[in-house]
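Incident log, support desk, overnight shift.

02:14 A customer reports that sequence design results differ from what the structure should imply. Their input is reproduced verbatim below. On-call engineer (initials T.W.) acknowledged and began investigating.
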């Protein structure tokens, strides 16, 4: 199901739902049985696994990979450039990986060049500045270890 008010230029599996006002660029890779809520942008070099949920207001930039069963809360902010400047000839894409089964709480910010481990959970509003190991809960600004799951 692709809402008629979205602009999906990529191949979208029939089992994936894309809601209104989404833009998905032509080379994005989108998995089966995903739910991409309204007002999302997915760029060309983004990879979305199977069974992912991307809530409203999320931008998935080039260089970001969501493995299978990832949940991204509303208005999560990802980055792909550690030192952004307009018209930067030295721009360097920094890849970020969100491993299988990880969940990112609403309103969090995820800096580029990191990995959030398998089954990890990021608390709402957290700012993640470094790798998060598998099976851990991290919260705060900057995000810090809270507990094992």
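02:41 Re-run completed on a clean worker. Output:
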């Amino acid at each position: 199901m692709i809402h008629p008010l979205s602009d999906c230029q990529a191949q979208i599996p029939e089992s994936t739902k894309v809601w209104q006002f989404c833009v998905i660029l032509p080379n994005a890779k989108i998995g089966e049985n995903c739910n991409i809520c309204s007002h999302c942008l997915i760029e060309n070099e983004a990879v979305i696994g199977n069974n992912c949920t991307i809530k409203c207001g999320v931008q998935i930039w080039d260089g970001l990979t969501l493995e299978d069963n990832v949940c991204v809360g509303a208005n999560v902010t990802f980055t792909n450039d550690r030192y952004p400047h307009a018209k930067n000839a030295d721009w360097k894409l920094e890849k970020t990986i969100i491993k299988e089964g990880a969940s990112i709480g609403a309103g969090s910010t995820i800096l580029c060049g990191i990995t959030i481990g398998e089954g990890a959970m990021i608390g709402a509003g957290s700012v993640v500045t470094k790798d998060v190991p598998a099976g851990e809960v991290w919260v705060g600004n900057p995000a810090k270890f809270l507990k094992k799951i």
